[in-house]
């Protein structure tokens, strides 16, 4: 078996080091209703479609109590729609502002093009949000022709396999085992496993670590290694077949998979790698 296609996530994977855009937009949306939501509360469900993510945040008992205290005139069911509408107005700015390709992406893209490996994406963003991202990434050389969001799968997003299955179908690949799904969240890995694809987690830019690139680079190597080791453990426990530090390591990983013909569930790089 040889790798025929790679399906990427967006924020925290191919762009937006640290997956900051959704965090900033969610925090601002809730703040407009007088509620401070912690990064940790938001990050635990990153990877879901954004409407489902709002529902998850509002299911948190602490957030519910704050909502009822600050906005007693808006019931929790209506709150989902109110917050999501506000989020939609805020997110495009943050997507555009954080759309720089993550380290190693140009290297990975050049390799994929040279080896005629197809590229697609799945995302918790909506189609209009992806359009905003593409406007920023196309000039950087990244513009997948297939970009699947849950609007195209009857509202079914991660961790279900529906978006990835549709991406694989539209790429014209018959065997999901010939497809790598690369992502930075637990839900990315679950999506890949549920679709029967090869699941790859990326560490340094990930939601699991949740630091901007300057914050990450400011850490000493020992602290980077500690955070990376913990992220690696989470990916592995979730079922990741492979874990890489940055996209620069994706070409070597694909070469390895093509040589082996199977996934061997080994981590192939030192998590210290920047």
From TrEMBL:
- Cofactors (names): Mg(2+)
Query: What keywords are annotated for this sequence in UniProt?
Result: Hydrolase, Magnesium, Metal-binding, Schiff base
InterPro entries associated with the record: HAD-like_hydrolase_sf, HAD-like_sf, HAD-SF_hydro_IA, HAD_sf, PGP-like_dom2, Phosphonoacetald_hydro
Binding residue positions for Mg(2+): 9, 11, 184
Superkingdom classification of source: Bacteria
- Homology family: Belongs to the HAD-like hydrolase superfamily. PhnX family.
* Entry keyword annotation includes Magnesium: yes
- Catalytic function, reaction form: phosphonoacetaldehyde + H2O = acetaldehyde + phosphate + H(+)
- Gene Ontology molecular function terms on file: magnesium ion binding; phosphoglycolate phosphatase activity; phosphonoacetaldehyde hydrolase activity
Taxonomic placement: Bacteria, Bacillati, Bacillota, Bacilli, Lactobacillales
Name-wise, this protein is Phosphonoacetaldehyde hydrolase
List the SUPFAM superfamilies hit by this protein, alphabetically.
HAD-like
Q: Which GO terms of type biological process are on file? A: DNA repair; organic phosphonate catabolic process
Q: Which HAMAP family match?
A: PhnX
Quaternary structure, per UniProt, is: Homodimer.
Active site at: 9 (nucleophile), 50 (schiff-base intermediate with substrate)
